[in-house]
Amino acid sequence: MNLKQMYEFFVADGIKNDPRGEKEVKILLDEKNKEYKSLDEKKKEFYDKDTLTNPYCDSRILYGTGDEKIKSVMVGIDIEVPELLLASQLKLSGKKIDLVLAHHPEGKAYATFHNVINMQSEIINSHGVPINIAESYVSSRAAEVGRSVSGQNHQRVYDAAKLLDIPLMTAHTVADNNVVSYLQKKLDKLQPRYLKDIIVFLEDIPEYKYAKTYGNGPFILNGGDKSKCGKIFVDMTGGTEGPTELIEKLANAGVGTIVGMHMSEKNYNNAVKHKINVIIAGHISSDNLGINLMLDSLEKKYGSLDYIECSGFRRFKR
Fold it and tell me: pLDDT for 265-275, tens place per residue?
């Protein structure tokens, strides 16, 4: 397997597990291609052509030709300059590393990742919030995040990878889609009665069980052990946390419990106000679950890989 094959597999796997459904994603990609074809040559020059086949701006090859053969991968949740220097040092000491794989976006994937947030509109709509309301709040949130990241030094990590000549790829929403697909299907089938039942379910998953050993396991943020779950919304994809105004809209749509990676104080206060139960499964542990599910699928097609775990990542195979 080469780097391009890995990248294309991750994108296809992200689409397969997208909570909007494959049909909706393909419609959006078709619209994107029609838009591109209608542009004049000057506008096409600066068009982000990856978006014609990849709907996830935060999941990209950052440095590499795509032809590199991949067998040994250093995987981390956050890969920045220190982790790349660590990879370089490990290579000098004889460790084979063909690729550094990051979860959280860097480089161009970070500069454009706010565009992924718009997918939350269809996800929230699928849980009962009218699409016009969801789109209004989500587009405002995407613009806010875009403004917040626009002044960052996006190319710092890319430059380090280039100088060290270490192939670098980021896999963010493609992995997060796996978490949502896996947990939502499991919880829909389980139909837990109380919040404590969700905690028991989560703690039986290796990534969350491991997180509990270092004091960062799943916990109830709002509600109690015997609070009834009602309708469960697994909210773990779409770039980053959604708009706080939609907490009320979800409550009005009948959502009883949100299971998320994390939640800001502002959104927490809104959840308390509108009586929505909240369970925090864990941020880094949920990221681990998504990456592991993605890697499991990859290995089924291309065979086993060698892993160097770093920056909060632990490989659990299924």
Answer: 999 999 999 99
Tens-place pLDDT, residues 111-135: 999 999 999 999 999 999 999 999 9
d(CA 56, CA 142): 14
d(CA 227, CA 194): 5
Instruction: Please tell me the total count of domains within the chain.
Output: 2
> In terms of domains, do 70 and 198 share one?
no
Residue 312: closest CA among 154, 103, 168, 109: 103
CB proximity list for 86: less than 8 A, separation 6 or greater: 310
For 214, counting Cβ atoms within 10 Å of its Cβ (0-12 exposed, 13-18 middle, 19+ buried), the class is: exposed
Domain assignment of residue 106, given as a range: 3-172+286-309
Residues 168 and 77 in one domain: yes
